[in-house]
Write a structure and sequence with these properties.
By secondary structure, the chain is α/β, with parallel strands linked by helices. It is built from twelve helices and 20 strands. α9 links the parallel β11 and β12. α5 packs across α6. It binds ligand LLP. Ligand LLP binds next to α10 and α11.
């Protein structure tokens, strides 16, 4: 099983109309490769059931390549940003500020001032100190800043503990009690017009979005009763993708479920992974085969600096050979060159030898965006495939790029 855009023809894998073997031989590996068709299909699955007044804000942290942000903007998506850098990027591609929301547990004063100066749709307040700071900025700038309150609804997302954000003891959001206290206070530098939450990522149970909506709705009614002009409820992101390609977690059904409960209130969604995750793959070359002790290793030229998810969350990304060169497929650990034993993509039955190419699936989200220069490795190129057209949407870094900011 593989992503929808990948097909096998005469034992060679194709992404849309492009032979992965040809492209792997032509361009230096490793590289990321994205299917535009899959990105568009994922966007459509979010847009099918939403109403004109609702907004899907692509969560930029999943993948912030400007070409990808442009595709999102062209399809009418808004953006969920969590840093000044992400805000800069979406403004750079011409995003409508009234479709940008800003969440994040530790925003600095310069970041908040930047967002305020750009008049974005909503800054989601996550703590009492942030509320005071924003109110102060509003007063200093003689503005009434549009904000939302991000609450911590104490919902268990039943995901990996590192990416659950909605339980009472997580650092994210404000407790409902704190939020209610805010509703009673008066702050003339801000206007509270949204109630939001994001309970975590890789959520496989879409019932949780209904539970969350009910909590947010109850709180929004409380805020309205206290005179706050609540004009949207934001249920965050988090819908899972299936890294094993067995099940589908449907954005159509999830959005419908929430919107059916919504009544008149506009709903915001903040998906990241489910918009871009399955559209991206990482292509890598086998540098050699090695047996140490009882283990067989395929040592490849992509490492944990290119895809940290297996090392960080024990995530399992499916891997296969781009062209099956031999019949027998033995079990190998596919490992990268980084000087850490954690630099392993896991154990797979793969028929491959030196100089063969492998493809690692489902890396569109939190692949490149979490890549680093660890071991002074160069971050890899990114390509976008549209039918038979190949566009380089980010160049590979050079050695010069590695040192250009050092002062010595
Ligand atoms: N909104 C907020 C406020 C978030 O913090 C996140 C993700 C999202 C939306 C988008 O969630 P998504 O739809 O992508 O699940 N690096 C981890 C995932 C971290 C997610 C952080 N927040 C991973 O590779 O699994």
């Amino acid at each position: 099983m593989r992503p929808n855009s990948i097909k096998s023809l005469d034992n060679i894998l194709y992404l849309e109309d492009v032979s992965l073997l040809d492209i792997a031989k032509k361009y230096p590996t490793p590289f990321y490769i994205y299917s535009k068709e899959m990105i568009l299909a994922a966007i459509d699955s979010y847009l099918t059931n939403i109403r004109k007044k609702d907004l899907v804000c692509y969560s930029v942290k999943a993948n912030s390549n400007l070409a990808i942000l442009k595709i999102m903007a062209e399809k009418g998506m808004g953006f969920d940003v969590v840093s000044g850098g992400e805000l800069f990027k979406v403004l750079k591609i011409g995003a409508d500020p009234q479709k940008i929301i800003y969440s994040g547990v530790g925003k600095t004063k310069p970041e908040l001032e930047y967002a305020v100066d750009k008049d974005i749709k909503s800054i989601n307040i996550e703590s009492l100190f942030e509320l005071e700071l924003l109110n102060q900025i509003g007063n200093e700038k003689n503005k009434v800043i549009n904000t939302g309150i991000r609450i911590n609804p104490d919902i268990d997302a039943k995901s990996h503990p590192y990416i659950e954000t909605g339980k009472a003891d997580c650092k994210f959001g404000l407790s409902v009690d704190d939020a209610k206290r805010i509703a009673d206070a008066s702050h003339d530098g801000i206007s509270i017009s949204g109630i939001s939450a994001h309970i975590g990522s890789q959520i496989t149970d879409d019932e949780l979005f209904g539970t969350l909506f009910n909590d947010l709705k109850a709180l929004s009614e409380f805020f309205i009763s206290k005179g706050h002009p609540i004009n949207h409820i934001d249920v965050g992101g988090g819908l899972a993708i299936d890294y094993d390609f067995q099940e589908s977690f449907s954005p159509e059904l999830m959005t419908k479920k929430v919107i059916d409960m919504a009544g008149d209130i506009p709903i915001f969604f903040e998906p990241g992974r489910s918009l871009i995750g399955q559209a991206g793959s990482l292509v890598t070359e086998v540098l050699g085969v090695k047996i140490n002790g009882t283990n067989r290793f395929l040592i490849v030229d992509a490492g944990m600096n290119d895809l940290i998810r297996p090392a960080l969350y024990q995530a399992n990304h499916k891997i296969e050979a781009i062209s099956a060169s031999s019949e027998s497929s033995e079990k190998h650990y596919v490992v990268g060159p980084v000087c850490e034993t954690a630099d392993s993509f896991g154990e797979f039955s793969i028929a491959a030898q030196e100089h063969d190419h492998l493809v690692i699936y489902s890396v569109g989200a939190y692949g490149y965006s979490m890549a680093s220069n660890y071991n002074s490795r160069l971050r890899a190129a990114e390509y976008l495939i549209d039918g038979s057209k190949i566009s380089e949407i980010r160049k590979a870094e050079s050695y010069e790029d590695l040192i250009k900011l050092d002062q010595y």
